[in-house]
Specification:
Layout (H helix, E strand, L loop, with lengths): L1 E10 L2 E11 L4 E5 L6 H8 L7 E6 L10 H4 E4 L11 H11 L4 H10 L15 H13 L5 E4 L8 H16 L3 E6 L2 H7 L2 E6 L2 E7 H8 L3 E5 L3 H8 L5 E6 L2 E5 L3 H10 L6 E6 L2 H9 L16 E2 L5
Parallel strand pairs: 3-7, 3-8, 5-6, 6-7
Antiparallel strand pairs: 1-2, 1-4, 8-9, 10-12, 10-13, 11-12, 13-14
Helix pairs in contact: 3-4, 4-5
The structure holds adenosine-5'-triphosphate (ATP).
Amino acid sequence: MIQAHELTKRYGDKTAVDRVSFTVEPGTVTGFLGPNGAGKSTTMRMIVGLDRPTSGTVTVNGKPYAAHRAPLHEVGVLLDAKAVHTGRSAYNHLRALAATHGIATSRVEEVIEMTGLQTVARKRVGGFSLGMGQRLGIAAAMLGDPRTLILDEPVNGLDPEGVKWVRTMVRYLAGEGRTVFLSSHLMSEMAQTADHLLVIGRGRIIASGPVRDIVDATREVSVRVRSPRAGELSELLAGQGVSLVATEPGLMEVSGRTAEEIGELAAGAGIALHELTPLRASLEDAYMSLTHDEVEFRTEHASASVGTPEGAVR
Ligand SMILES: Nc1ncnc2c1ncn2[C@@H]1O[C@H](COP(=O)(O)OP(=O)(O)OP(=O)(O)O)[C@@H](O)[C@H]1O
């Protein structure tokens, strides 16, 4: 479990992390989601004692990271997958890490197998692809069989197979009861991987909770209605606090009423419907609307908001 209380980090005038409080529970994958520069890495570095908080506290499994006698058994960390001595083989890198932390060599073989590195384990890390480097980083994080895993952007730059592998791996580890905390700037990725989300923007938590709740809370629902008697239906709906846009003859988008309510109303008036489709903002739209004011550097561009049919979530 990770518990942060009023965690704050300032660099000069810049507040990178601003009074952040949260709990990351065991047995779940918690996604730490935010645009570039939002404060994800700084928060993670403070959790593992690499940055000292300006104020506030953070504990892992009940104690500050530095207070653990065998931290590698408590917390596995992937912060920068490229921070490996590139002349060494993956096997030697892991063996050196294990030796300095009193971990048996047999565990090195285990994590190599767990991360699918068997065929490249004796090769120089310098020649590794990004995906292999990420696997090695996760192998190193798993070396101490830790109860808590912290992974900073573990899928960054991976191909679809690598992304899927990380996703399956972290879900499996959480299923074993471990605490898994991973960061990303991609909502679509987090929505498929995480159970809970912690959304951060400009150093502040702007949303937290189960993935579904966050998406539901930020989405704007409208309903696409097609009817040969659309004119009559729109008169019926008018004056009921709904907003209604006729997109083409016989077709309209209605906000302020659910599909069920519109269907009942139409049936009551004997009006046939040829289509009744709930529309919702995509996950990316929900994320954009959450973080819109929190992005450090924004490219200004006009973009039409296009609803997607329910179920066709991107
Ligand atoms: N050592 C430092 N000195 C000064 N400013 C820093 C330092 N480290 C981070 N920052 C600033 O703090 C803010 C948060 O950075 P951080 O790296 O934590 O964000 P992030 O969410 O991890 O972003 P990214 O996805 O780009 O890595 C940024 O504005 C960054 O420029």
